[in-house]
Amino acid sequence: MQLEYFYLIDRIVDLNIGEKTITAEAQVPQQNTIFEGHFPGFPLMPGVLLIETMAQTSGWLLVALMKFERMPFLAVVKEAKMRSFVTPGELLKIDARVVHEGSGFTITEAKISVGGKPRCNATLTFRHIPFPNPDLRGHMDAMAKRIGFPEEAMPHG
Fold it and tell me: Mean per-residue pLDDT for 44-51?
């Protein structure tokens, strides 16, 4: 994780296009300025960043399913539950799956666990549109390589 750049997942562990599922991992940094204020003497990963971590993981699943032709944007967070604390240094496993696809929208269910124990989960709705500009598309291509996006799911051409 690079919190200051909003890079919240480190690597894609599994991507299953047929089943519409994804698993990613993220190592919460031991030290980060965010923990100075959240909370002094009791550092916790903010819930809003956990939701964003689930959203980014879901987003990569949707980018893959849409063959890098459309960009998903988080539209609705529903049923978000923080079940236990996430602390510095923990390795997060993030799982997401598509539960509904509509015209221009997709709903995923995502969860984060540490050592097999649930930490949080949410139902997330995304709006997706064609990439608004080549710069964003180029950035997403570069990020895909950085996080180990499966080569077979990358567009070629």
Answer: 96
What does the DSSP 8-state code read for residue 148?
Answer: T
CB 61 within 8 A of CB 108: yes
For the question of whether the overall pTM of this predicted structure is more than 0.70, the answer is yes
Closest C-alpha among 91, 124, 99 to residue 13? 91
Query: Of 50, 59, 77, 45, which Cα lies nearest the Cα of 12?
Result: 59
Residue 38 designated active-site: yes
Closest of 139, 119, 120 to residue 131, by C-alpha: 139
Burial class of 9 by CB neighbour count within 10 A (0 to 12, 13 to 18, 19+): buried
pLDDT digits (tens, 9 = 90+) for 120-147: 999 999 999 999 999 999 999 999 999 9
Q: Which of 38, 128, 139, 156 is catalytic?
A: 38
